[in-house]
Amino acid sequence: MSSSRHDASHIATALRLAASAIRLTDPNPRVGCVLCDAEGRVIGHGHTQQAGGPHAEVMALRDAQAQGQGHSTAGATAYVTLEPCSHHGRTGPCCDALIAAGVRRVVASLADPNPLVAGQGFARLRAAGVEVEVGPGADESRELNIGFFSRMIRKQPWVRMKIAASIDGRTGLHNGVSQWITGEAARADGHAWRARTGAVLTGVGTLLEDNPRLDVRLVDTPRQPHLVVVDSHLQTSPDAHIFIAGRAVWIYAASRHNEEKAAALEARGATITCLPNLHGKVDLPAMLQDLAARGVNELHVESGHKLNGSLLREGCVDELLVYLAPKLIGSGLDIASHLHAEGPLTSLAGALPLEFKSVDMLGPDLRIVARVAGRDRF
Length: 378
What we know:
This protein has eleven helices and 16 strands. With about 375 residues, it is of the alpha/beta class. The strands form three sheets. It has a nine-stranded mixed sheet. The chain is globular and about 70 Å long. It starts with a helix and ends in a 6-residue tail after the last strand.
């Protein structure tokens, strides 16, 4: 096998390792690493663990030492899907661990966008005499960590809006009944998308109408994503089902006009943040910036047509996760209301352009992932 094919094969394995950490690493990126000895034999592999735990490179070095009497890492090549970190956070710098292990060569997919790293890991490796190559698997690694890149570069999470609808675009009947438009496979898949995110967002209207838990139940997960509620006037009940042990609940309001209610919600563990806009509602773009500061990489939206419309209208949505059931409902609830501030369009040129990323069958239903055109170019 040629050197380039050899590198591509090991990077592909590292990317699979990174993908296996999707529900685990937030707010850190999903990274995989493969170690090969000087003869090209795989001697260790690993992926980043939960926040505060070892990163992929350290896991691979430990794996190499754990096999038999321990494999020598002197002269080894490390294949890693993101630049080894160079700063002291909750763990030590991975570039220093590779240097200390005697690694001769590092093949990395792309540079870390974190300003605390941003090429410094590569620079320290090269200064220590380690050969560094960058590029294989770059697109796949970035896509795997699009939320992390969004938070580091745009200072806001990657926002994915989940919608379950009939084929004629109805999310429920006029009386609010919506369970269940889609089938079991689609619902389980929706929980898998919840599980990969840093936080799930909903509106107070959904809480008052359905009192959902909005947790992950239908797939295994090592953690529950945090919950975000857009509640301009603090209507959330302290007895709502959203309060689950071990998960943060962040409520964004326009004001604390009812201190007794605010205190009751805070007693249940909620954090209330007031971010009013000029219209007495929650400033949605400011909320996204605040969520990024809290470490949210990907934000999963499951809300009603009113909040959906507001988020889309204000340019806060990057991607749509749409489940379409083979049903015709006719008159009912829309996917999003008041989508355009100026009212109904009079020209198709004003429509929001989307790009299909994937289209798949899940049981009888269709899953479409559609991205707002150009939104991922940052």
